[in-house]
Amino acid sequence: MPIFTAPDFDGHEQVVFCHDAETGLRAIIAIHNTTRGPSLGGCRMWPYASEEEALTDALRLSRGMTYKSALAGLPLGGGKSVIIGESRTQKTPALFRAFGRFVESLGGRYIVAEDVGTGVADIEIVRQVTRHVAGTAGGSGDPSPVTAYGVFQGIRAAVKAKLGRDDLAGLRIAVQGLGHVGHDLARQLYEAGALLVVADIDEARVARTAAAYHAEILPADRIHAADVDVFAPCALGAILNDETIPEIQAGIVAGAANNQLAEDRHGEVLRLRGILYAPDYAINAGGIINIHHESFDHYDRAAALKQVEGIYDTLLEIFAHAETEGIPTGTAADRVAESRFRKQQQVA
Ligand SMILES: NC(=O)c1ccc[n+]([C@@H]2O[C@H](COP(=O)([O-])OP(=O)(O)OC[C@H]3O[C@@H](n4cnc5c(N)ncnc54)[C@H](O)[C@@H]3O)[C@@H](O)[C@H]2O)c1
User: Fold this and answer.
1) Domains of the chain (ranges plus CATH)?
2) 260 pocket-lining for ligand 1 (C-beta < 6 Å)
3) Which residue is closest in CA terms to ligand 1's atom 5?
4) Confidence (pTM)
């Protein structure tokens, strides 16, 4: 199977295949780019159907981290790791210690945190054998409120760019998904005077948010079509697709969910419909910014929140670039990010 020439390889600096016979560990650590600093990214544990699938996932995710951290202005590069296995049944302390020894062998070029299938308890075990970890129990904790704060700043920026307004008072905003991020985002929007429309597939969550913030309730499969100023997807990915985009009434889409565009081409479909889209990896960077501020066994929440406020300016820069060039905002975000990590590369 070709690796260096595969499209997903995309100039990765280093890919490490980790195997430990005693524990059965099979893992891949992918380091995409370290020109801005050590690579940081979560460790995903997933029962991949094939090794090729695991490698592709690691490569794509680590590349994504380079872009996310560069755009957030962090002195970090992009990396990610995957452990091939079923997280509910195949986790053992020895497995995570074996994985941690591979992380340690990289001497700090890769810093590991949680991801799908791994949690704080697993990272605490990894930490027994390497200090190159983030997102630990005594550190920054749940990043969701900080992510929500970043999304709130991003919505403010989109409202400024699209509607020329500095405040959210009286604006109608639809929040899809009322989990860790969505519920806290609803609180911040409510406190800023927005009128909320909400949906979740979990009725208890809908009831909780609607009662707390006087929100109108819509069915989960209709929230994207709400008659609102802003649609904030905070549930799953691929919500912006051929079926939903023609039904969107909001002039702005700005929310926390990862991979909101079903396909890249949907960025252009949104642009042609005159809908301003806040690129997901730009607006939801609060979590990685938060983790960065605890990287050295010390967590400064005030500094993290201050840096998260920068998402406002980053988005205004992306919107202006997209407008001038007549390109989708996602493409503009990629270009701004690339200029940040490629510029450093030339200097180095
Ligand atoms: N938590 C973070 O700090 C963070 C950081 C960056 C990105 N994100 C992304 O933001 C999104 C939300 O993250 P979270 O931590 O709040 O997750 P979560 O699991 O706590 O909440 C997701 C919510 O979406 C609901 N949901 C699922 N499918 C739905 C549907 N079809 N319609 C309506 N609601 C639906 C779930 O019931 C749940 O309440 C995810 O896409 C996540 O990848 C989260």
Assistant:
1) 14-126 (3.40.50.10860), 144-340 (3.40.50.720)
2) no
3) 287
4) 0.90
